[in-house]
Amino acid sequence: MKAPHVYYISQGKTPADHLANIKKMVDAQVDWVQLRIKDADETTIFDIANQAQSYCQSHDVKFIINDSINIAKAYNADGVHLGKQDAQPSKAREILDANKIVGGTANTLEDCLNLIDQGVDYIGVGPFRFTTTKKNLSPILALEGYQKIISELKHLRQNPTLIAIGGITLEDIPYLTKVGISGVALSSELHRQNNLANTILHIKNHFQKMHL
pTM value? Predict the structure, then answer.
């Protein structure tokens, strides 16, 4: 699996806004998209997931469903992301096809090791700083927290794909690439950009330079 350098977490006031924003981000060439709708009925989420999956697939962008293994399976999404209060990644492995992506959320070294044991493809580690897009926020990690977790993982000879998430801005990208993060999950910060395609290309270039 190629790690996503720019991973968009969907945002919008309505489900239709989520879909429109996903299409905008896909057109601007993000690597992956995660559909994350919290306050809508299942029928509506199914409809948006179906349309978003088709659009992402036609543009060769990975499409991930937040929380729901069943929706990910029903619409043949590329994978599922499971939070700390969701189903276990091992359960997703039982239900989804072997080639599907399974990701999990972590805030500590112990979280990371648990997810590695369950065979996740990537770990969303955060939050980097305070963010209003998520309720029941885990303790803030900041740059020092990422450095500590990555150092401890290396000591244990573990090298998972780590995606930084939570209140990240463009100014943070150079520092996150240097500590060994594989990519960044962004939402509000991308919506603030006037030239979205150039911004995404700029972020990708930072990560690519670190892997030369």
Answer: 0.93
